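Here we describe the complex-level prediction in full. Unlike the single-chain runs in Section 2.1, the two entities below were treated as one system.
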Amino acid sequence: MIDIIIFLSLVAMGYFIGSIAERRHFRSLEKRETIELLQPIVTMEDVGYPADQIEFATLVSGSAVISIDYFKRLLASLRNIFGGTVKSYESLLDRARREALLRMRESAPDAGVIVNVRIETASIGRRANKKGVGCVEAIAYGTALKLRK
Amino acid sequence: MIVTNTETIPGKAITEHFGLVSGNTIRAKHIGRDIMASLKNIVGGELKGYTKLLQESRDQATARMIEQAKQLGANAIVNVRYSTSSITQGAAELYVYGTAVRVT
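The structure predicted for the assembly as a whole is:
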């Protein structure tokens, strides 16, 4: 009986606190992504700037580790039975990648453009549907080009 | 030391190649962080301790790569890539590699 109560309260905590935190995070992501000061990012190497216009090039990176909440983990394990898209993990990965990209951009505020951006994802913890830490880590990196005025 | 992940450095010419240089770190989380992280796992959200750990190990791996390139006499590293792998439970590897070159 006590087990069930603990389980249900964990699920409820995960649902309420988790969804509030997620909404807040998405709002902050949206706000920070629309700041005009942020430089454009592209995945290709050359964006057509002449070489004499570029002052220097340097590697920049950003990372984020986002954890899943208890309720979503339950949803995902239910989804594992029936198959289909696991929406609860999609938003987790989306948050981690966007946060990593934003941190990368914020780490190079004076860059004109960031080229050749790559995103790497890994999980530190054990598998998310097993016991243990279910989290996703995203690393974004690219080359920041500082342009001459 | 100029480090980029593009194949060339804009405005510079590569005069000499020194081959692959790499750096790695294997990090484990200490138990305190593990406990905090498993608590955070109930409500979700960012694991700040892990983010910091990841950042530190990335810096360390990059520093090791730069050290190796310096010993070869290079002054730039191009085409840098990061890669991660988990070896055992509770430990993860961060690997960074690139090509050491001399530019003028």
